[in-house]
Amino acid sequence: YYAFHSNGVTLQSLTRQQKRKRRRKKKKERKKEGEKEKEGNKIKKEKRKNKRKKERKKQKKKKQNKRQN
């Protein structure tokens, strides 16, 4: 960050509080990204589950038809 002095602007290292604030902000952003990803994965998982369910139903129907014939 920049510190303003009477002789102009100089570049200084961040204070501990600023570092902490920045770390927390980044952590929050990462968490948000992770949640977005999780949501996407949940949807994918649900789709796979439904697909398997459909497949099982199909197989069951096939078996029943075989028995009837």
Question: Short description, anyone?
Answer:
The chain has 69 residues and is mainly alpha-helical. It has 1 helix and 2 strands.
Helix share of residues? Answer: over 70%
The average pLDDT score comes to 85
Total strand segments: 2
Described by its quaternary structure, the protein is single chain
Number of domains: 1
Number of helices: 1
Instruction: Kindly name the structural category.
Output: mainly alpha
**Lateral arrangement of strands in the main beta sheet:** 1-2
Which sheet architecture does the biggest sheet show? 2 strands, antiparallel
> Which geometry do the CA atoms define?
rod-shaped
Q: Give the ordered list of helices and strands.
A: EEH
Radius of gyration: 29 Å
Distance between the termini: 81 Å
Poorly predicted ranges (pLDDT <50, ≥5 residues)?
none
Report the portion of residues in β strands.
5-15%
Characterise the protein shown here.
The chain has one helix spanning 16-68; strands at residues 2-5, 8-11. Strands 1-2 form a two-stranded antiparallel ribbon. The chain is 77% helix and 12% strand. The termini are far apart. Residues 31-43 have a biased composition (Basic and acidic residues). Residues 17-30, 44-69 have a biased composition (Basic residues). Residues 1-69 are annotated as: Disordered.
SSE inventory with pairings:
Blueprint: E1 2-5, E2 8-11, H1 16-68
Antiparallel strand pairs: 1-2
List its traits.
single chain; 69 residues; mainly alpha; two-stranded antiparallel ribbon; 1 helix; 2 strands; 77% helix; 12% strand
